[in-house]
């Protein structure tokens, strides 16, 4: 009698929980073990900086599935442990508890960790990567009109800035680049988001580096910038990016380069090991190595591909990478990767509260960024995925529907 296969998943976050679910959905009959160190079942992380911080959803609402789901579907959850070592020769994962798990297939879904700022330990300095961080942040924001300094004008920092401002905090965003979202969004989008924050009373300081932090006893008191500006604060959120949790993969000899290298089907350099989510970098068939894509969409697509591969089901179609961010009444949706030398076409909404920015190269749409225009986002997502040619004249003409630019 054939022994049932065993799939071990390292990481009980959004991507790890999704691949376990997808395996069962596609009829996988082997053992599934999900390893996580947060003491809770898989949950959604994007709302931590928005709805959860505002108090409009609770921890139960964030759960991907009820705890009973895992028991009912024979998914073994080790939620107070973590993987310490992968013995690829023996196909064994060794846990911090000392327990060893044999596997037939291994999925690494360890995500990324916040990049740390070298500081003294002090109360009031927080990061935001998980529920524990979010609980600390929520407690500090509960003070009456707290002064909040945010180091980093990326998505996490700006989403928290919008939420904190909504809650009545006095907010200052400190960004070392010449504009917020400099690495991830176009100038037009950056300008629109900047305007929204300033209209809400958020102060945005660009081209600024931190000289030092000052403390009041054991609590953060102010951030002093290189030009002498002092930003007094009761709370300092540090959002200066993230680094992949790929140590265990590198130590086991898997191919890594600022993340675990995988192919289009999320397979690593070891045929028995897959990796998904924020910890990965995809190598295209032509050898090009993409940057890490920290997005829920990428993680879910990879999870579906792993499940299809292990159950010998048809693979889902490749999707263009997509991202989103909610700030105030603005929904920013982005799809594709912007080539540095693309032609940029901006269309403003007729009602004046939205816009779409298209990036065209070699006659095709390569990326799009939209604010409050889900229709343009969906049109762009389909056009990029299918490689449609674009009529640039039609796209520039704001009196014509966007869809007409892709009908040829």
TrEMBL record:
Pfam families: Pyr_redox_2, Reductase_C. Its EC number is 1.18.1.5. GO terms for cellular component: cytoplasm. Residues 6-303 form the FAD/NAD(P)-binding domain. Its cofactor is FAD. It is an enzyme of class 1 (oxidoreductase). One of its GO terms (molecular function) is oxidoreductase activity, acting on NAD(P)H. SUPFAM superfamilies: FAD/NAD(P)-binding domain, FAD/NAD-linked reductases, dimerisation (C-terminal) domain. Residues 322-402 form the Reductase C-terminal domain. Keywords: FAD, Flavoprotein, Oxidoreductase. This is Putidaredoxin reductase CamA. It comes from Pseudomonas fluorescens. The gene is camA.
